[in-house]
Amino acid sequence: MSEIITAAMVVIGDEILSGRTKDKNIGHLADMLTAVGIDLREVRVVPDDQEAIVEAVNGLRARNTYVFTTGGIGPTHDDITADAIAAAFGVPCGYEREAYRLLEEHFAKRGIEFSEARKRMARMPEGAAHIANPISVAPGFSIGNVYVMAGVPAIFQAMLDSVIPSLKTGAKLISVAIPSPLPEGTIGGPLGDIQTTHGETIIGSYPKYEDGRFWTEIVIRSRSEEALRAAKKAVEEMLETLLKRN
Amino acid sequence: MSEIITAAMVVIGDEILSGRTKDKNIGHLADMLTAVGIDLREVRVVPDDQEAIVEAVNGLRARNTYVFTTGGIGPTHDDITADAIAAAFGVPCGYEREAYRLLEEHFAKRGIEFSEARKRMARMPEGAAHIANPISVAPGFSIGNVYVMAGVPAIFQAMLDSVIPSLKTGAKLISVAIPSPLPEGTIGGPLGDIQTTHGETIIGSYPKYEDGRFWTEIVIRSRSEEALRAAKKAVEEMLETLLKRN
Q1: What do you get for the CA distance between the two ends of chain B, in Å?
Q2: What is the DSSP letter of A120?
Q3: Domains of chain A and CATH, by start
Q4: Using CA atoms, how far apart are residues A12 and A28, in angstroms rounded to an integer?
Q5: A218: nearest CA in chain B?
Q6: What is the pLDDT of residues A126-141, one digit of tens each?
Q7: Which of A150, A240, B18, B102 lies in the 20 to 30 Å Cα band around B174?
Q8: Looking at residue A180, what is its pLDDT?
Q9: Do the strands A213-222 and A201-210 form a parallel or antiparallel pair, or are they unpaired?
């Protein structure tokens, strides 16, 4: 068996908590990590507040292989993620030489002032490594097991694409979805029994409500193809038996 | 000044963390709470795991006026929210008499077996009060300052509608959005100065990336209309000055 690799995510930003911006990054990260066999174990959405960011990052990095953050690395006063991550690691935060050079060159080429605000984007905790930003140059960074990325979805996704190949990945969690025309209340008992006898799988059951009718999506997950197949067979037989009766 | 009312949210479900289901409830709760003057301070997404749910709920209920949970109150073996909330409060969990009666009657009317699985939906922590479910009968519940609701968005929204009028609400945080054609790097410095001199407001700046161009949405929030107006004026004058120069 391969090692189990776990991850947590910290979404940073008042605008998500106020509802003004609807997060699109949680679902994307979840999909990407699942695809490469990393278990996303927890997500926290926190405000632009240093204490809240430090608490979340330190709590989560201690118990996960990786922590991914989004948001708060732009040039304005409310972008405090670099300082907060430095505080979480107890290291100084300042201009990172290569990031400063990249940004200076980028703006000079375009005849745009390299303002104090823009210089903020070169700030990183001491010892951080760059995460490339192919869209708007200002890099994200990683320190320890924490990956700090932009909140704008297009930039977050591009940064994540460059991070993923460098990660340790686990045995991929494979899954199969079985639609059940019967509602959860009917299948719940026997499905629980199947879970009990198929310990190498995780069986989830998701009620769907559409056009005034309930149906259920049963999802079986496992790191073993054989275990998945066996549980799938058990679920299908259970559904067949119940459908004959109902 | 009115009291500041704060809230946290716990989204419960493996299916959100795997990416299979994309959460739609965070944004809706954020919008609803902002509308009635309650500050959503933190959101956590946790798996169907009792220890994780207990830790999140107990951590958050101690420091917020309200905690709202979604997910895990259906009839199947992976629906463990009622037991987890009971464990968080240190009280027993069992069939709640009125919920049991409602469900029994509901299923009897429809000639549907009141199975062991369906009976699970009548389980609540001792001392819990119902949250009505106008869509599929099985109630949510509240205990202490924690409101436990369904994960299916249509049912969550209906339950929340019945909860909101019973909540203490704070002075509404009013906001104004000012679109800036100038990117964050240009406005960042002066905007930080405006934040410093307008302490009764929270000024956020959100980079927007569309069709290869950056622009910025500046959002000013305050509980005071007067403070909001003054900060808005300062931002507009700042933009005017910068636009003349650029």
Answers
A1: 41
A2: G
A3: 6-166 (3.40.980.10), 174-245 (3.30.70.600)
A4: 16
A5: B76
A6: 999 999 999 989 999 9
A7: A150
A8: 94
A9: antiparallel
B214 pLDDT tier (thresholds 50, 70, 90): confident
Chain A neighbors of B202, CB-CB under 8 A: 14
A-contacting residues in B 60-89 (Cβ below 8 Å): 74-79
Nearest to B44 among A16, A28, A44 (CB): A44
- Which residue reads 């679902």 in tokens? A27
DSSP for residue B164: G
Residue numbers of B between 187 and 226 with CB closer than 8 Å to A = 187-189, 191-192, 195, 202-209, 214, 219, 221
- The yes-or-no verdict on residue B90 having pLDDT over 90 is yes
Helix, strand, coil tally for chain A in percent (to 5): 45, 25, 30
Closest Cα to residue A231, out of A219, A217, A241? A219
CB of A5 within 8 Å of a chain B CB? The answer is no
Nearest 5°: phi and psi at B67? -125, 135
**Residue type at position B29:** L
Cross-chain residue pair B188–A22, CB shorter than 8 Å = no
Model pLDDT, residue B1: 47
DSSP-derived 3-state class of residue B173? coil
| CA–CA gap between residue B172 and residue A171 (Å, rounded) | 49
Q: What value does the mean pLDDT take over residues A181-188?
A: 90
Residues of chain B positioned with their CB less than 8 A from the CB of A44: 42-45
